[in-house]
Every structure is written in structure tokens, then in C-alpha cells.
Design brief:
The complex is a heterodimer of chains A (592) and B (262).
Chain A (H helix, E strand, L loop, with lengths): L13 E4 L3 E3 L3 E8 L14 E18 L2 E16 L3 E5 L3 E4 L2 E4 L3 E6 L3 H14 L4 E3 L4 E7 L3 E3 L4 E9 L3 E8 L6 E6 L7 E6 L2 E15 L3 E5 L3 E10 L4 H5 L3 E10 L3 E6 L9 E14 L3 E3 L4 E11 L15 E3 L3 E9 L2 E14 L3 E5 L3 E6 L4 E6 L3 E6 L3 H7 L26 E2 L8 H46 L1 H9 L2 H20 L8 H10 L4 H19 L8 H18 L2
Parallel strand pairs in A: 2-9, 10-20, 12-21, 22-29, 23-31
Antiparallel strand pairs in A: 1-3, 3-5, 4-5, 6-9, 7-8, 11-13, 13-17, 14-19, 15-17, 16-17, 18-21, 19-20, 22-24, 24-27, 25-27, 26-27, 28-31, 29-30
Chain B lengths: L1 H20 L5 H19 L3 H13 L2 E2 L1 H13 L3 H14 L4 H13 L11 H10 L4 H24 L3 H32 L4 E4 L3 E5 L8 E6 L3 E8 L2 E5 L5 E5 L3 E3 L1
Antiparallel strand pairs in B: 2-5, 2-8, 3-4, 5-6, 6-7
Helix pairs in contact in B: 2-3, 3-4, 4-5, 4-6, 5-6, 8-9
Classes of the chains: A alpha+beta (592), B alpha+beta (262).
Chain lengths: 592, 262
């Protein structure tokens, strides 16, 4: 009920404390704390309160040393014991103290005084709780928890405050376990409450309860329909004094009993209405009451310098969930992601504050540009209407920038990717389309393979012919010799007959005839026009070596001589025949 | 001297044959097709796609074909929103000319619009490369290339045999080897392209929603559902039913009239 209050001011501070609710005839304490040595505060009590005793003065000094730093706090407490005579609501006006000419005033304290018949119920309840001596007691009228919601019928996105509250008539020593509800379907934000739960006296249906706020939440429903807040559960430890007849027990402060008590809050249902139809295009779920401010830091600048567009959204509602529609900027501006600065306070009346979006823009080329106004839409649950806010539009004058600066800032801004705007199939082919009768593929047809077979076949034939030719040219020499001997044999056949018969004269004649005939054939002239003298020249023209010609002439001379004077012939007829055959063979080789 | 003359005759003869293969159809017929194709082109440009498709179809019905013709017909169907027909004709265009860049692009566009998305089973990289290689040219380009390489090989052999210059002999050897390698390669790839062309197992689903059955009759269990435009492989046929396989390897039976073969 009474909490320490840290008074750390330079001057004098005074705080007053008293229960919120008392009964007629109940004694209660009114306490003033001063952090300096002063006289008793000056109070003007309403008439209904009678001072039974006081002021009782007590004094405390505490010295703290933290990390070598010493702090001293001083407290002077004035305690009055009062009793109220009549039911009603009363206010104790501010108390005033003075120190060294400096005055300090406390805040006024309001006290509700109830009729005293409530005290009967209380004692009855106490006796009830005494009879049930269970280890864990559940709820009952002495101890219960509730989830209080500020509103029950709201629009989607509108806020409501849920307070988790504890009511007790028992004296609590502490909490064992608190199970907080999961607010499914809601976006929840906790409102800051003191760490330690302070109990207050409160009038519930004419009975005095100690109440404490455990937690407070601001909830934003995320969907429409009936949303249920799960129960929350508190397990607390109760310290109860055991009455005893032993006067010594009373003297030493009595005996206490501890037990655990538990209660669960009933389920709470919230009806969430969907937002009405007809939301504007720029609506993105904002519900509440907002204001839009836009500003730019400059309206004329050089290309490649930066410009900041500030969009500030202030108001109350589901600010945390608001999504700012992206403003449209001229295409030539380089736009960076906005810097978002939320400044939102969550209070029992919802979330309020502001969100600031800072867009950094860099125009890349000179010219006059218009920044289109930013549009933002929200739903106002109070008027049940959508509202669209429009920011200012700005004309931005961009001058030609310094070339040097552009090089420093960004070097590749002038190149752009070719981006696809749409996709479609490619266009048809025109022209004669290369039409062909169906199933006319050249590859793999018999004609195709025929080309290969022909190619291979012809190559093989060509190679064979060549091979034969080479062989023939190698044999040519031998062939010609063979031919020559054949010719000479044929020509000298008659001579050979005469030689066998031993007719020497006839043999020489036959030899001569054969030689002249052969020469005439070879040189293709008449035998009559051939003489011993001109034959040498003719043969020379044919390229016959002189040595062979000489031999030939000698042979002719020998034969002529032997013909007319056979007896005088010294030469052997056989040898002459052989010589003739040899010369004809040689000539055959030489003359072609 | 005589052999050289002979080679010249053979070479010119071959070229004459090769040229004859690419010969255009009869003159008056060609003029008729040309008018149809021009009308189709005009209709397409005026966004009268069904008329354009009719003209192209007419040319096809007269027994003429080409990759470009199927490509244009596919475009005309695509523009009418008939995806299965468009896909069928793009596939046919690619069958005639696997190197048809535009047909490949448009097929991809059309395939991105069909309902079914199937993760194809993984293909090893060398198979992908091989496929890309044989798809890089139309089939008859492979035929011509193989013949040119073959002639180069023969020419190299003959030159090697007949020439007396050592330097020429030395240059001719790598040319001959190159010709040999090129010939074998283009023959292999051409054979691949031909087998693709003659493959009658690819088919396009024409039924908007097609339940694939476990057995070739209507009482079979429904295995999975495919939609129009999907390319499937026909594994076997049994009367009115065919067994198909989809790209991820799943197999089932569908009625014959539910698809058209590429």
C-alpha cells in the first residue's frame, strides 16, 4: 500500500499518501514524507475527518555506496491517524512545508468514504476463508482476476486497452506464477507500468478490495469478427494471521499461515467490425486520426547533389502498422530507401506520435522537375469515413552540375540496363519460308549414301589405275629390249636359214636386205633413196650415238665386200650374223 | 592428266546432285504457295489470326512443310489463345530445324503459360552439351557438312598420292585428318537429328483436364491429372488407349484422342 518514493530533488519535496477508499469509522493513516528537516506540514483537513493522533514523526537516513559513489537520502515522515464520520467523496487539499524560505506542496489526495455496513461482509468473508484450509485455494470472492477492456465494439485496426487487474481482500505475500494471455488476432503493445505492483483500495459493488494492475496492453485487432482474449491466470501467496488465545503469541506478533491461491480470469470477447468498403487506392490499413506534413530541404540545386524529402505522419492510431505508400519520383532521380524514424508512445489512449520518412534524392540531370504530392489514406473510426491526405507538391530546379563532382559521386549513372516492359512471342517469319515437299530429308537417304559409295569407289579405282601405271613405267626398259631382239630376230630369219644351210653368199645378201629394210621402216623412207652415205646423217638426227652408226656402216661394208668376194671374206659368217642382230637390237632401243 | 580430269568431273557431279536436293518445287505450284503465305502474313499483321492459321494450314495440307511454316502457324494459334496447337506446331518447327531460335523462344513462352509445372529429371551435363550440339544446325546442314568433309578427305588422299612436293604432302595430312573427324562427327550428329525427326513418340495433350489412369480403360484408378499443352512421351499403344510418360518419369494410360503426336 505504501511505496517508497525516491525524492532526489535539490529543494524540498513532499508527498502525501492515503488509501483511496475507507469506511465510516475505520481508522486510516495519512502520511506525508519530506526529504528535508522541516516542521510538520500545514494541512487543512475537511471536517468529516477527525485526527485521532498525530503527527507522529519518524526519521530515516539511508546511505548508498555504488561503485564508490555515495548517496545519502533523508526522509522525514509525518503520520496522522484519521477517522471519517460520513460517507462521501472528499479531497484533502495540498499540504505545504517550508524550508529556508523555500515552499513545497504535495498533490491533493482524494478519499472515498463508504458506509460502514460493508464491514460485516468483510468479516464474514474472512471467517469463510478460515474454514477452507486447502493448500491452493481458487478464487472466490476474496481473490479474483479480471481482464478489463476499454471498448467492446471496434473497427479493425482501432485500438483498445486491456488491463490485467487483480482484486483481493486477503493480504498477499507475493506472486508464484502469472500466465499472461496470448492476444491472438491482435497486435499488442505493452504500456509501461511500474515493475512492482502497487495495491490500491477500490470500491467494488460497495465492498473494499485491494486492487493492483498487473499489466496494461494496447491492442490493435488484425482481423474482423469475434476475437477472444484468452484467460489469464495468477497464483499468489497469501499470508494469513492465525488467531490464538495465547496472549504471548499476540505479544510477539502472532503466528502466520501461508498458502497459495489461484484464479483465472473469464474469457473476454471483443467484436471487431470490418472496415467499410470503398477504401481509396492509397489506403494501406491505417486506422485512427492522422496528419501529413511534407517538406524538402531545398528547391534548387545542382545535378548530382542530394535533396531530402521529409514526410512526417503524426497522429494517433495504429501508427506502428502504418505503411507509407511509396511516393512517385521523376525517373531521372536516384532514390534511396527512406530512413524511417518512428517516435511512438503507447499510452492508455492508444499509440500516438509520429513517423518520419526521409527520402534521399539525387537528380542526375538538369531541368525543372515536379515532385508529386505524397498521398496517404486512413480510416477515421470516429467519423466512420476514409480520409485521404495529400502532401505538398514541390518544384525542384536542377542546374547543370559540376563535371568533377559527378565523377566523384557516381561514375556509371549514364548507363542503364534495358529492362523488359512486357513479354510476347516473337513475330512470324516472312518470305518463301523454304517450303519443301514433306518427308524430304536428304540426310540418310540412299542418294546420300550413294555419294559416299561413289566417292569411295572412284577413289579406289583412281588409286588402282595409278598403281598399275607405276608398275608399267618400271617395266618399260626391259620391254623395249625384249621388243628390239624380237624385231631383229624376225628380220634376220632369212639370214639365219642361209647360215644354217652354209650358203655364205646368200646369207650376207639376206643380212643386207634385212638391215636396209629395217632402216627404211624405222626412218619411214623408201629403200631406194637410202645410201650408205646418207643413212649415217639420218640416224644422227634421230639421236643415235656415233659409235653405233660406225658399227652399222662397218657391218654394211663387210657384208657388201663379202657378198661380192665371198672367198676373200675373212670374217666368220656366224659372227657377222650376231653383229647384225646386235645392231638391230641396239637401234630398236635408240629409235622410237 | 586423265585422272585429274576425272576427279573434276566427279566433284562437279556431286555438287550438282547436292544442289538438286535443295531444288524448289514446280514453278506454278510455288507461286500458289507464295500467294497463300503472303495472304497469311497480311492477315497476321492485321491481327486476323484465325485467317492466317487457315492459310498456313492450307499450305501444310498440300504436302508442303518447313520449320518456318510450322513456326508461323504456331504463332497464329498462340495469338488466338490456343496453347496446345501453338506448342504442337512449335515442336514441329523444332523437329524440322532444331536450331530455330525463334521457335525455341516462343515455345518457352507458351510453356510458361500452361498449367502443369513438372520438374524434369536431372540430365547430365555431357548429354545436355551433346543435345545442344546436334540442335545447333538443321539436319541437312549436317548432311552437306559431312559430304564437304568427305570430299576434303578424298581430295587430301588423292593430292597426297599424286603430288611430288613434300611441302604439299605435309599440309595435306592435317586437312585430311580434319576432314575425317568432321565427317564422322557430322554423320553422328545428323543421325541423331534424323532419329529425332523420325521420332513419333512425342505428343502434346489437347484435353483441358486429363486424368491419367492406371490401366487402359475408364474404370482404372486415376493416378494424376495433367492439363492441355503438356508434352508427353507415348510409350505404347493399345487399341483406343496409349501409355504415356511425363517429364518427371511418371507413367499412366490416357485415351488416344486426348493428345496429338508431334
Amino acid at each position: 500500500m505504501i511505496l517508497p518514493f525516491a525524492a532526489t530533488g535539490q529543494g524540498v519535496n513532499i508527498t502525501g499518501e492515503a488509501p483511496n477508499v475507507v469506511k465510516v469509522g475505520e481508522r486510516f493513516r495519512l502520511v506525508y514524507k519530506v526529504d528535508a528537516k522541516t516542521d510538520a506540514p500545514h494541512i487543512e483537513l475537511p471536517d468529516v475527518f477527525t485526527v485521532l493522533s498525530g503527527p507522529g514523526v519518524s526519521q530515516s537516513t539511508s546511505i548508498q555506496i555504488i561503485n564508490g559513489r555515495q548517496t545519502t537520502s533523508f526522509n522525514l515522515t509525518f503520520t496522522y491517524v484519521l477517522v471519517a464520520d460520513k460517507a462521501g467523496e472528499y479531497t484533502i487539499p495540498a499540504a505545504e512545508v517550508e524550508k529556508d524560505g523555500e515552499k513545497a506542496r504535495s498533490r491533493p489526495i482524494s478519499i472515498e468514504v463508504l458506509k460502514s455496513n460493508a464491514s460485516q461482509n468483510q468479516s464474514q468473508a474472512q471467517s469463510n476463508s478460515k474454514t477452507q484450509k486447502q493448500e491452493v485455494k481458487s478464487g472466490g470472492s476474496d481473490f479474483f482476476v479480471r481482464v478489463q477492456i476499454s471498448r467492446n465494439n471496434i473497427y479493425q485496426g482501432e485500438h483498445l486497452v486491456a488491463t490485467l487487474k487483480l482484486y483481493t481482500k486477503l493480504s498477499l505475500a507475493g506472486f508464484e506464477d502469472i500466465k499472461f494471455p496470448s492476444f491472438s488476432g491482435f497486435f499488442n503493445q505493452e504500456i509501461e507500468t511500474p515493475q512492482q505492483i502497487s495495491l490500491q483500495r477500490e470500491n467494488v459493488n460497495g465492498q473494499i478490495y485491494q486492487t493492483g494492475v498487473i499489466k496494461k496492453y494496447v491492442l490493435f485487432p488484425q482481423r474482423s469478427g469475434k476475437l477472444t482474449i484468452d484467460p489469464f491466470e495468477v497464483e499468489a501467496v497469501v499470508r494469513e494471521r492465525v488467531r490464538s488465545n495465547d496472549p504471548f503469541d499476540d505479544f510477539f506478533g502472532g503466528r502466520y499461515r501461508r498458502y497459495t491461491i489461484k484464479d483465472e480470469s473469464p474469457q473476454t470477447t471483443v467484436t471487431v467490425k470490418p472496415l467499410p468498403a470503398g477504401a481509396p487506392a492509397s489506403f494501406s490499413g491505417a486506422v485512427g486520426n492522422f496528419n501529413l506534413e511534407t517538406s524538402v530541404d531545398k528547391t534548387s540545386l545542382k545535378a548530382n547533389e542530394s535533396l531530402t524529402l521529409t514526410v512526417k505522419l503524426t497522429g494517433e492510431g495504429n501508427l506502428k502498422l502504418v505503411e507509407m505508400p511509396k511516393p512517385e519520383f521523376p525517373g531521372d532521380f536516384e532514390v534511396y530507401d527512406p530512413k524511417i524514424k518512428p517516435a511512438i508512445r503507447v499510452t492508455p489512449s492508444g499509440a500516438r506520435g509520429s513517423i518520419t520518412y526521409e527520402y534521399l534524392l539525387i537528380p542526375r540531370h538538369e531541368g525543372t522537375f515536379e515532385l508529386n504530392p505524397v498521398t496517404f489514406s486512413y480510416f477515421n473510426p470516429a467519423t466512420r469515413q476514409y480520409k485521404t491526405l495529400k502532401g505538398q507538391s514541390f518544384d525542384i530546379e536542377v542546374e547543370k552540375g559540376d563535371g568533377s563532382q559527378s565523377g566523384v559521386v557516381v561514375s556509371n549513372y549514364s548507363k542503364q540496363d534495358v529492362t523488359n516492359i512486357g513479354t510476347d512471342i516473337r513475330f512470324i517469319q516472312s518470305g518463301n519460308l523454304g517450303l519443301r515437299p514433306m518427308n524430304t530429308v536428304f540426310f540418310g537417304t540412299s542418294l546420300f549414301w550413294l555419294i559416299y559409295i561413289l566417292g569411295i569407289g572412284l577413289t579406289i579405282i583412281v588409286l588402282l589405275i595409278r598403281r598399275k601405271k607405276i608398275k608399267e613405267s618400271a617395266d618399260q626398259l626391259r620391254m623395249r629390249t625384249k621388243k628390239a631382239s624380237k624385231v631383229s630376230k624376225k628380220r634376220l630369219r632369212a639370214a639365219a636359214k642361209e647360215l644354217k644351210a652354209g650358203n655364205d653368199g646368200a646369207m650376207y645378201e639376206a643380212i643386207l636386205k634385212a638391215i636396209w629394210g629395217y632402216l627404211a621402216d624405222k626412218l619411214t623412207i623408201d629403200v631406194a633413196s637410202l645410201t650408205r652415205d646418207n643413212v649415217g646423217d639420218m640416224l644422227k638426227e634421230q639421236g643415235v650415238p656415233a659409235e653405233i652408226i660406225e658399227k652399222l656402216i662397218k657391218l654394211i661394208d663387210d657384208c657388201e665386200f663379202a657378198r661380192y668376194a665371198p672367198s676373200a671374206a675373212q670374217s666368220d659368217s656366224k659372227k657377222v650374223y650376231n653383229d647384225a642382230a646386235d645392231i638391230i637390237g641396239k637401234l630398236e632401243k635408240q629409235i622410237k | 592428266m586423265m585422272t585429274k580430269k576425272l576427279i573434276t568431273y566427279i566433284v562437279t557431279g556431286w555438287f550438282a546432285i547436292v544442289m538438286a536436293m535443295g531444288a524448289t518445287p514446280q514453278e506454278n505450284e510455288a507461286a500458289k504457295y507464295k500467294t497463300w503465305i503472303d495472304s497469311a502474313e497480311a492477315a497476321y499483321t492485321n491481327q486476323d489470326y484465325s485467317k492466317a492459321a487457315d492459310f498456313y494450314q492450307q499450305v501444310l495440307e498440300h504436302g508442303m512443310t518447313s520449320a518456318d511454316l510450322h513456326y508461323n502457324l504456331g504463332n497464329a494459334w498462340y495469338k488466338q489463345g490456343a496453347l496446345p496447337q501453338a506448342i504442337l506446331h512449335y515442336e514441329k518447327a523444332l523437329k524440322y530445324n532444331p536450331a530455330h531460335e525463334d521457335a525455341r523462344f516462343n515455345l518457352q513462352m507458351a510453356n510458361s503459360l500452361i498449367t502443369d509445372r513438372i520438374e524434369p529429371s536431372h540430365v547430365p551435363f555431357y548429354k545436355r552439351w551433346y543435345k545442344q550440339l546436334w540442335q545447333s544446325m538443321p539436319i541437312d546442314s549436317w548432311a552437306v557438312l559431312s559430304i564437304v568433309a568427305f570430299l576434303a578427305l578424298i581430295g587430301a588422299i588423292l593430292l597426297f598420292v599424286f603430288t611430288r612436293s613434300i611441302a604439299l604432302k605435309k599440309t595435306v595430312v592435317p586437312i585430311g585428318l580434319l576432314g575425317l573427324v568432321l565427317m564422322i562427327l557430322s554423320l553422328t550428329l545428323g543421325a541423331e537429328a534424323r532419329s529425332y525427326l523420325e521420332d513419333t513418340h512425342k505428343a502434346i495433350v489437347f484435353e483441358p483436364t486429363l486424368n491419367v489412369k492406371s490401366s487402359p480403360d475408364n474404370s482404372g484408378t486415376d493416378l494424376f491429372t495433367i492439363h492441355e499443352g503438356l508434352k508427353v512421351e507415348v510409350r505404347q499403344e493399345l487399341g483406343e488407349w496409349s501409355e504415356i510418360e511425363i517429364a518427371d518419369g511418371r507413367v499412366g494410360w490416357v485415351p488416344n484422342e486426348s493428345f496429338k503426336k508431334v
